[in-house]
Amino acid sequence: MKCLICGCDDTKVLESRLAGDSRSIRRRRVCRNCDHRFTTYEKEETLEVHIRKKDGHVQPYQREKAMRSVQVACQKRNIKMEEIEFMLRKVELRFQELGERVISSRQLGDLIMEGLSTLDQVAYVRFASVYKDFKDPNEFYSILRSLNKSNRSPTEGRLRNSSDRATQKEDPPCLPA
Questions:
Q1: How far, in Å, CA of 14 to CA of 25, rounded?
Q2: Which of 8, 121, 127, 153 is the most buried (most CB within 10 A)?
Q3: What is the β-pairing status of strands 50-52 and 102-104?
Q4: Are 80 and 94 in contact (CB under 8 A)?
Q5: Domain spans of the chain?
Q6: What is the model's pTM?
Q7: What residues are paired with 24 via a beta bridge?
Q8: pLDDT-derived band at 173, boundaries 50, 70, 90
Q9: Which residue, among 99, 84, 90, 85, has the nearest Cα to 48 in the 3D structure?
Q10: What does the alpha-carbon distance between residue 92 and residue 86 come to, in Å, rounded to a whole number?
């Protein structure tokens, strides 16, 4: 790291700690030539992703836009903002793992829908209705049927298929002693 005053690249790290966002490192340094002290920040390089729209137009990924869409889908649902943030971070990590600089809007929408399906099924249906541009009620029915087939158990937080449910025995009703 070069000194900002004299340009010497012989500097010493005095202190290192995580910055406020916990995603970067703050380092206090001193120049060994002129004793000037300065602070540097190190941050993991992130892949800048662009979205290819249906019409072929390419634009930079806008987290705020994705967040607004998810928030609208989650409106009046008992979902904490932290849960939405976590889900969106997982989506972003997924398309970073793809390693591609340009992904289609369809891929992005599918990743968001996948995240919403585990977060809240009503929000999932709301998002799907806009994202897939539903034109008639039959499209709602088909997506609801697909959710029914997965038989998601909200208390257990995992998917169950109908054969699992049929083999489980119900507990007998409690009788007064």
A1: 13
A2: 127
A3: parallel
A4: no
A5: 11-43, 50-152
A6: 0.57
A7: 43
A8: very low
A9: 99
A10: 10
